[in-house]
Amino acid sequence: MPWTEEQTRARILQARTVVVKVGSSSLTSQEEGSKGMLDVQKLDRLVSALSAAVQMGARVVLVSSGSVAAGLKPLGFTERPDDSVSRQAAAAVGQGLLMAQYEKSFARFGIRVGQVLMSASDTMRSSRYRNVHNTMERLLELGAVPIVNENDTLVTSEVKFGDNDHLSALVANIVRANALILLSDVDGLYTAPPSEPGARRIPFIQNAIDEIDNSSISGSGSSVGTGGMVTKVDAVRIATASGIPCLLTSAHNAGPALLGDTVGTAFAPLRARESSRRLWIGYASHPQGSVVVDDGAVQALQTGKPSLLAVGTLGVEGEFSAGAPVWVEDAQGQKIARGISAFDSDDIISLAGKNTEQIERFLGSEYARPVIHRDDLVLVETPAQ
């Protein structure tokens, strides 16, 4: 039965573990002469709201942007630099300033914080994914607030999340959060860019996969941030498809959002939560190649829950080993699913198109098993056509 707005907001209010993401523009000054510098008053207001939730029994994980923005002014920049090396230098200075202020601000309420710097590679391998989970879980057990950011100082473009919106959705999966709250300088999702006449805030969306048209979503309005509304909606789609209700609102509304008030835009979860392994396969693993399948296999995968058999495969793209995460694609290159391959890519080429009897006769019974077992296969969510 579909979730209602009241049920969704009640679930957010009752969340035992909640991930809150705040963007750079919500933590930095927009005034001339101090634009891009860390705004301590904004940060203190956010911390007050988060601390109130912690004192009411919630376990809070904060995914915070702002390290690059906080380092701009101290290094003499008047705007966000275009080159990655300068941004990494700003992050090296700003990360320390940002964490020092968080420690001071949370200390007013007797709450400790712990810094967790992540890169995309921390989610690409299941063992590192588990290690991140264990670290943050232990911090929460000890009553601390993990403060998560991408490791902007050292990470390269090839292994970047690209924005903290995407990172926050993965963190929500990692810590098995009961809710995800995205805070920015916009107080919700609108029917058109908020500056346009007649634009209306949308209070509730039941299905973030089907009900949002990407063409109507405006981009970032901030000169100090990297994310925009598109990246926030992508994060919502990942989280709600993982069974996590979401709320998108402004940082000014952080307190009311955590109290379940009717602010921002609430997004209902699309299904019950799956196992952490399936969540990793679907949203955090880094596919190392592709298994190409025929139309019959595509139809079977999309209409049921079968394993992918060799008889439905056409070949592979790339080279990979057994146990690697891979895409499942149709003959036109459309991504259908992600999964964990049971065979090396060379073996799949030999198995392609053969039925079980042929495999046992020519290759041996040890090869007569699925290319990807159904427990290791997760369909790609796509908007309804």
From TrEMBL:
UniProt cross-references to Pfam families, sorted A to Z: AA_kinase, PUA
A biological process term (GO) from this entry: L-proline biosynthetic process
Subcellular location, principal: cytoplasm
Cell compartments where the protein resides: Cytoplasm
GO CC terms: cytosol
Family the entry assigns: Belongs to the glutamate 5-kinase family.
HAMAP family per record: ProB
Protein name (database record): Glutamate 5-kinase
Taxonomic lineage of the native organism: Bacteria, Bacillati, Actinomycetota, Actinomycetes, Bifidobacteriales
